[in-house]
Design goal:
This protein folds into four domains: about 1-105, RRM (RNA recognition motif) domain (Alpha-Beta Plaits, 2-Layer Sandwich); about 110-205, 2-Layer Sandwich (Alpha-Beta Plaits); about 235-315, Alpha-Beta Plaits, CATH 3.30.70; about 340-445, RRM (RNA recognition motif) domain (Alpha-Beta Plaits, 2-Layer Sandwich). With about 450 residues, it is an alpha+beta fold. The protein has nine helices and 23 strands. Residues about 185-230, about 270-275, about 315-320, about 325-355 and about 450-460 have low confidence and may be disordered. The chain has helices spanning about 30-40, 70-80, 125-130, 165-170, 245-255, 285-295, 320-340, 390-395, 420-430; strands at about 1-5, 20-25, 45-50, 60-65, 90-95, 105, 115-120, 140-145, 150-160, 180, 215-220, 225, 235-240, 260-265, 275-285, 310, 345, 355-360, 375-385, 405-410, 415-420, 435, 440-445. The strands form six sheets. The protein has a six-stranded antiparallel β-sheet with strand order 1-3-4-2-5-6, with helices on one face. Helix 2 (about 70-80) runs antiparallel to helix 4. The longest helix has 20 residues, at about 320-340. The radius of gyration is 26 Å and the shape is globular. The relative contact order is 0.07. GO terms for molecular function: RNA binding. This is RNA binding motif protein 45. Keywords: RNA-binding.
């Protein structure tokens, strides 16, 4: 099967999400017919008619890509069931999900009408409704509250009657609300009579994890599901951060996800460093909450410029002992490689070890590039005898500016560093190649250049 499309194809067909329509029509419908009827709803970026590979005849299935999600939703709401050409059957119009998914969503789908927002804790449900009613008719508003105290957690849900209204709210509301489409709720546990705790459980998004199974397998609908009872997923998480976060800040952040039963900022019991380590242990009372916390907070910038690293850890392991052991190892290796007196201490407020030992001068810290920045250059790094921790590498490589992320290849002494600016990457390579950081020698080279125009799935590192 091949497609015939308009000449100007957007670089990312799923940006923004839910901006692409899946249209079922008669085979006689042309691209011009679709453009004439659908262009009144917004800026069309492309139209694709699927054709049979052998006969080149239209299959009666098309895609219409808009510049905005709200435009696609309005087109779906208005055009679904309409007749395009006299004598043809009514068309069917759905929101197409990402290209990797076979599922399409219609106007009745709750996933398109319910949004999740961050709000002041002083907001009442009436305040929430008054704030978001300008974008359309609201079916209900819910505040997420603490089970014990009943106080608002500063989070809430807004359910609209139409997908286009929810899309308009996400596009146009104040960015401080961080509005997004809410996670789908578990239908098995949902009841319209659930009151203020609508959505399967008090918070709506927790019960959805109970439907997944792992290892990956296909359910009857052909979708991949995950079973968290096996593998490396646990109820406990390790937080790694370069910024000097307090116990209270970490607690408040992870307490946004319900079910947290333990949170502790880890400290160096061997007294090799001053102050707290840049690590924290968080434990939830269910797997669903820990999975959700990792998914939402890993890579999250808090405070701005500091990207959090959140990973699962084995409940039976002693994280404090492990972190302290890493500090000891780094100190010993530094002595072996550099000698007791040749290390230069580089102070880095908030950095987990408080010291970076190097035999050269490093530039000052610079702000990270946004996580969605386009990669202009990648560096390939080889470590001897073993890789440095991610937070150490991020601390070192961010000093040249425009750093997007650092990735270590599991089980190997190599990694990749992404930069949003080629000049910054060149400066990092020139200064760091062959250097020793915390007792680890690094070889820094240019990696294969990223393919800026490719139809293959992008690399994950």
């Amino acid at each position: 099967m091949e497609d015939s499309s308009s000449k100007h194809m957007p670089e990312n067909l799923d940006d923004p999400p839910n901006s692409r329509l899946f249209v079922v029509t008669s085979r006689c419908v042309t691209e011009d017919d679709l453009r004439e009827r659908f262009s009144k709803y917004g800026d069309i970026q492309g139209i694709w008619l699927l054709k049979d590979k052998q006969t080149k005849e239209p299959k009666g299935v098309s895609y219409v890509k808009y510049a905005k999600s709200s435009q696609a939703c309005m087109a779906m709401e208005d055009m679904h069931g309409k007749v395009l050409l006299e004598g043809t059957k009514p068309i069917k119009v759905f929101i197409a999900q990402s290209r990797s998914s076979a599922k399409h969503r219609d106007v009745e789908d709750e996933e398109l009408t319910r949004i999740f927002v961050m709000i002041p804790k002083t907001f009442t449900e009436e305040d929430l409704k008054n704030t978001f009613r300008e974008y359309g008719d609201i079916e209900y508003c819910d505040l997420i509250r603490n089970k014990l105290t009943g106080e608002s957690k500063g989070l809430g849900y807004v359910r609209y009657y139409k997908p286009s209204q929810a899309a308009l709210a996400i596009e146009n509301c104040d960015k401080s609300y961080r509005a997004i489409l809410a996670e789908p709720r578990s239908k098995n546990n949902y009841s319209e009579d659930a009151g203020a705790s609508r959505g399967g459980g008090e918070y709506g998004y927790v019960d959805s994890f109970s439907q997944h199974t792992f290892p990956a397998s296909a359910d009857q609908g052909g979708h991949m599901v995950v079973d968290y009872r096996h593998g490396d997923i646990t109820r406990s998480l390790i937080l790694n951060t370069r910024a000097a976060l307090t116990q209270e800040q970490i607690f408040a952040l992870f307490d946004l996800i319900p079910g947290m039963e333990y949170c502790e900022l880890l400290r160096d019991s061997y007294c090799l460093t001053k102050g707290p380590l840049g690590y924290a242990l968080i434990r939830y009372n269910n797997l669903g909450s820990s999975v959700y916390a990792k998914e939402k907070l890993n890579g999250f910038e808090y405070p701005p410029g500091n990207r959090l690293q959140v990973t699962f850890y084995d409940d039976g392991e002693s994280p404090a002992g492990r972190m302290a052991s890493q500090v000891v190892t780094a100190q010993i290796m530094s002595t072996v490689w550099n000698g007791a007196s040749c290390g230069q201490a580089v102070k880095s407020p908030g950095y987990s070890l408080s010291r970076i030992q190097v035999d050269f001068s490093l530039p000052s810290l610079k702000k990270l590039a946004p996580s969605d920045s386009k990669t202009k250059e990648r560096l390939f790094v080889v470590f001897n005898p073993s890789p440095l921790p991610l937070n150490v590498l991020e601390d070192v490589f961010c000093r040249f500016g425009s750093l997007i992320e650092v990735h270590l290849v599991p089980g190997r002494n190599v990694g990749y560093v992404k930069y949003a600016d080629r000049q910054c990457a060149e400066e990092a390579k020139a200064l760091l190649h062959g250097r020793i950081v915390n007792g680890v020698k690094m070889k820094v080279m240019l990696a294969d250049p990223p393919r800026e125009e490719s139809h293959k799935r992008p690399r994950t590192y």
